[in-house]
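Limitations

Structures in this collection are predictions, not experimental determinations, and the ligand pose is part of the prediction. Treat each record accordingly. The example that follows, with flavin mononucleotide as the small molecule, is included so readers can see exactly what is and is not provided: the inputs are given verbatim, and the output is the predicted complex.
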Amino acid sequence: MSFFTDSPITSWIGNPSAPFDSSAQNPVKGSKLEGIIKPIKIGNVQLPNNLVLAPMAGVTDGSFRQLCARLGAGYSVSELASCKALQMRSSQTIEMIKFDGNTGPYAVQIFGADPDLMAEAASFVESLKICDIIDINMGCPVSKVVKTGAGSALMKTPDLAANIIKSVSKAVSLPVTCKFRSGWTENSINVKEFAHAVIEAGAKAITVHARTRQAMYTGSANWKYLEGIKEISGPIPFIANGDICSEDNVIELYERTGCDGFMIGRGCVGKPWLYAQLLGHTELLQENFRFPIFKHHLTDMLMEHGSTAVPLFRVHLFGYLKNHPHSASLRRSLCMERNPNVVLQAGKDFFDRANPIDREA
Ligand SMILES: Cc1cc2nc3c(=O)[nH]c(=O)nc-3n(C[C@H](O)[C@H](O)[C@H](O)COP(=O)(O)O)c2cc1C
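Predicted complex:
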């Protein structure tokens, strides 16, 4: 039974098996970001809005993608999947990208450096009929990935990146997009040339993370490198990414870059209602929904992952408890916890606290 049956936008809270209702994905007329948050199209795929849940390995599993979609995210991207693992039909990789629930438009992201292998992997993903878009990872900074020439290493080989886009686009009928960074290092910023190369090769949307590979995930995103990209992308959607956490961030990025969409990663970890906030769905922001959403999230993960759900939930748990006055000691005491009831109680104690200011990110 749901806790909140008064509106279809909130009736899923507390009821993980509730069918997906897309009404929260519609932008609200008269909201602060009206005209900036809007539907867009990638190839022939219509997105209900231009707020995107970023792909995050170990974070954006099916439960989180669905939770964010229920709270308004208009589009989500899977955790990165290796083309080699897909070629070998790794059941673990297939399980990771597959999800029986509904989230609205969804891309599977693949990585690799061999155009033929990437095409074969994309064609296999398309045959599974689980997604609307194939996204190519050209931004992963992890050594294991870049030493194979894949991920952000492709920023050093724009011709190869373009060949991958061409080869994958030829192999599938789904739109092919890619996500990359501002460059390899601060001394080799080539985001504009790179955008040009992949768009000319046929990318149907580009997402740019405003950090270099050298920066990994540290420091602040440098939005200056996103300026001028829209002029290159023309009619192709350009999605901005990096440190988007508030309405003011969205407005500033839009004014500075004219971007078509906003991809949010860490800003929604522990705060998945950020999408509702940006869309203007205030009914989803009620204080008394916070713990039920937390509980819903954990319950959904228990259904998706079984006994490994609690350790996998930890990254979200620490996000939800980020502003807890005793967050450091709580982290220590919960970092090995495997009992879902203990984790639930920690969430309840936190969200029941009298002062909501503590909880604001
Ligand atoms: C834990 C973690 C895992 C990530 N995994 C991926 C991934 O699988 N594919 C990808 O393209 N980017 C990945 N990213 C990068 C994010 O998609 C995003 O570009 C980055 O976090 C910057 O956005 P943010 O400042 O909103 O978090 C990951 C980031 C984090 C923090």
